[in-house]
Design goal:
CATH superfamily of the largest domain: P-loop containing nucleotide triphosphate hydrolases
Order of helices and strands: HHEEEHEEEHHEHEEHEHEHHEEEEHH
Structural class: alpha/beta
Number of helices: 12
Number of strands: 15
Largest sheet: 9 strands, mixed
CATH topology of the largest domain: Rossmann fold
Number of domains: 2
Distance between the termini: 66 Å
Shape: globular
CATH architecture of the largest domain: 3-Layer(aba) Sandwich
């Protein structure tokens, strides 16, 4: 049997034209638009490279080797590949006939060095006060959703938030593809598995989620919600499993709740819409909204508290605890903005106090200046 290390190195040799980018820590994504056009992303901006593959056939051969590495196949009958490279980077590939001008490939880099909250502060993604607020919210077991668009930094923020989970708690992570790097010792990482070529052996996130509820989790971390598992998670949140963390694709905090509601409806459980909305509003305590701005920078744009569901108006009730205010662009083409407390007193203050933590003084100072009374 070929040693795994030798096999992995052999596979990476097939990627020789883009190997320098796979080894470059400043490259966050590699996009292959056919054999003759390759782009990379650095610091949120795209750059066209001079790299080339010899031919379409050679690129397809590379993808077949990558598919073999993850135990899958890619051909005309199975033209979509989802998998991971030896270094953990995520690869998504489409070949003809679904991509007539392809193959098209996107490789999302996996960085072994976990981004901590301190590093995110250093990048300007959020302020120390906002990080202190998030720490208090995680410690006090609020259920938090990190939301944002593609490439906005959702997983990086989720990784950073796991660093605030108190030591001694049992953390179970469930993902489609292993990306979360929990910064704790007592961690069980589970990964869903697709069906084989004959449709057998599939293990879904929902399957894993239901199993983990019987494994004494202190914290449940779901890498990304994509479907009916949303209702399972919301029901767990409302039945005593506090401190859940997850991510999903959404542009604004209010959209996050609507998206979550839609995915709950994908479940096979028949539940009245109103009851579902009430559960979503009760289960989710806060949304951390992240975004990639026009200058390519990744920022936290909102930290929003979910207050409930207004039955008369038929809408979710939310309030921003922190928000980002934009002031234009500087001479370097960078967006100038300020992230700070909005002047509201969060209703979850009592829950924080029960766990011996509190929001930073700036939250109360902003509320005092705004004339906001304590709830």
């Amino acid at each position: 049997m070929i040693p795994r290390e030798v096999y992995e190195e052999t596979l990476l040799q097939f990627f020789a034209p883009i190997r320098p980018f796979l080894d470059d820590p400043t490259v966050s994504e590699i996009m292959i638009n056919g054999p003759d056009q390759i782009f990379i992303e650095r610091k949120g901006r795209l750059y066209k490279t001079e790299a080339r593959f010899d031919s379409r056939e050679s690129l397809i051969a590379v993808l077949r080797n990558a598919a073999q590495f993850v135990g899958k196949q890619i051909d005309a009958t199975r033209p979509i590949l989802e998998g991971r490279l030896p270094d953990g980077s995520r690869i998504e590939a489409l070949i003809p006939p679904v991509a007539p001008e392809g193959p098209f490939v996107a490789i999302r880099r996996f960085f072994k060095e976990t981004l901590t909250m301190q590093r995110l502060i250093g990048f300007g993604s959020l302020t120390p006060d906002a990080a202190e607020a998030l720490e208090a919210m995680v410690v006090s077991k609020l259920n938090i959703v990190v939301a944002g668009g593609t490439g906005s930094g959702k997983t990086s923020m989720l990784n950073a938030l796991t660093g605030y989970i108190p030591e001694g708690e049992r953390v179970i992570v469930i993902e489609d593809s292993k990306e979360v790097q929990p910064q704790r010792e007592h961690v069980l990482q589970l990964e869903a598995r697709p069906a084989d070529a004959k449709g057998r052996g599939a293990v879904t996130i929902r399957d894993l989620f239901r199993a983990t509820l019987r494994m004494r989790p202190d914290r449940l971390v779901v890498g990304e919600i994509r479907g009916g598992e949303a209702l399972d998670l919301v029901q767990a949140m409302t039945s005593g499993h506090g401190g859940c963390l997850t991510t999903l694709h959404a542009t604004y905090p209010r959209d996050t709740l609507s998206r979550l509601e839609t995915m709950c409806m994908m479940s096979d459980i028949d539940m009245p819409l109103l009851a579902m909305r009430i559960q979503v509003a009760s289960g989710i305590n806060a949304v951390v909204q992240v975004g990639r701005l026009r200058d390519g920078s990744r920022k936290v744009t909102h930290i929003t508290e979910i207050l409930g569901f207004d039955l008369e108006k038929g809408e979710y009730v939310t309030q921003d605890i922190f928000s980002r205010r934009y002031e234009g662009m500087n001479n370097q083409g960078e967006i100038v903005s300020e992230f700070g407390p909005t002047g509201v007193i969060p209703r979850c203050v009592d829950q924080l106090h029960e766990h011996g933590v509190d929001f930073p003084a700036s939250v109360y100072h902003a509320a005092q200046q705004a004339g906001t009374s304590t709830p």
